[in-house]
Amino acid sequence: MTHDGSDETRNGALAVSTHALSKKYGGETALDRVDLRVPEGAVYVLIGANGAGKSTVLKVLMNLERADAGSAQIFGLDSARQGPEVRARVGYIPERQDAGYRWMTCGRLLQHVAAFYPTWDSAYAERLAQALESRPAQKVGALSKGGARRLQFVLALAHRPPLLLLDEPTDGLDPVIRQRALAMLAEHLADTQATVLIVTHRIYEVESLADHVGVLRQGALVAQMPREELQRTVRRYQVEVPDGWEAPPGLVIVGPRRSSNGRHVQWTVVGEERDVTERLALAGAQVREVTPLRVEDAALAFIPDEGTR
């Protein structure tokens, strides 16, 4: 079942939308009819295990990969048919370092890229590079994984695009630079009107920024909703049940079912707390405690068998 909290966004402007987006690599399904909805101005965090399809979504949006079926739009532009126009509106941090321009220095590459963006802010690019300790004289081909990530941050943010697509943006960064990069991203969002789609398995790092959350599991989008809805409707219930008790039909239980001492169970249940409590009581169970969850724990409940690695 897909727990889709996107009804309200369908009536508003969407920065990113996909419709039945599907992609296979050989016999492996990377994306399975994904309907992504990212409202304009949102910080949308898409999580999932490695291989769940997160990076493939961004590659299709950037027209770096072609979907087998379905469609993808950015600000109403079709990603497949209007790739250059789409990319002009996007700041992109890819999953892996691009092997191109290896002979250039970092400083020369920034100058080269700046020529393609009328909105390039040279002073801002220099401030980002200094804060992230990106060395202008270093050759791109000689960069470490962390060094490449720092350069990609500058390239993505310096032209102040209306959309940021960030694939594991802190991957390879040491703890100090990681915190600095996240702080600069928060500052960027405060100063620049932008929509952000972040794919990550480190949801705890960007939890404070997220206002929408999506969950991919084995290529399928199993949940997407605003942050407050996720925290309101996904909660942990301590329940006492009689012998032989069965959950009422239609009760959406996600995550592990743990039993402590006989008739006491702990479940993570999707639904409004009052409704869930009433349905459990009518079925003969006694709710002993209801616990709100952090954004990370609520989201991870939808992928209990996979975790986020």
In words, what does this structure look like?
30% of the residues lie in helices and 30% in strands. By secondary structure, it is α/β, with parallel strands linked by helices. It has 2 domains: 3-225, 3-Layer(aba) Sandwich (Rossmann fold), CATH 3.40.50.300; 229-300, 2-Layer Sandwich (Alpha-Beta Plaits). The strands form 3 sheets. The protein has a 7-stranded mixed beta sheet with strand order 1-12-11-5-10-9-8, with helices on both faces. Strands 2, 3, 4, 6 and 7 form a 5-stranded antiparallel beta sheet that branches. Helix 5 runs antiparallel to helix 6 (145-157). The longest helix is centred in the middle third of the chain and has 17 residues, at 175-191.
Key terms for this structure?
309 residues; alpha/beta; five-stranded antiparallel beta sheet; seven-stranded mixed beta sheet; Rossmann fold; 11 helices; Alpha-Beta Plaits; 16 strands; 30% strand; 2 domains
Q: Can you summarize this structure?
A:
The chain has 309 residues and is an alpha/beta fold.
Terminal-residue CA separation: 23 Å
SS elements, strand count: 16
Q: Please estimate the helix content.
A: 25-40%
User: What is the global morphology?
Assistant: elongated
The radius of gyration is: 22 Å
- How much of the sequence is in beta strands? 25-35%
**Average of per-residue pLDDT values:** 88
Q: Which residues form runs of ≥5 with pLDDT under 50?
A: 5-10
What is the CATH C-level name of the largest domain? Alpha Beta
- Strand arrangement, major sheet: 1-12-11-5-10-9-8
Please trace the helix and strand order, writing H or E for each element.
Answer: EHEEEEHEEHEHHHEHEHEEHEEEHEH
Structural class: alpha/beta
Largest sheet geometry: 7 strands, mixed
User: Treating each run of at least 4 consecutive H or I residues as one helix, how many helices?
Assistant: 11
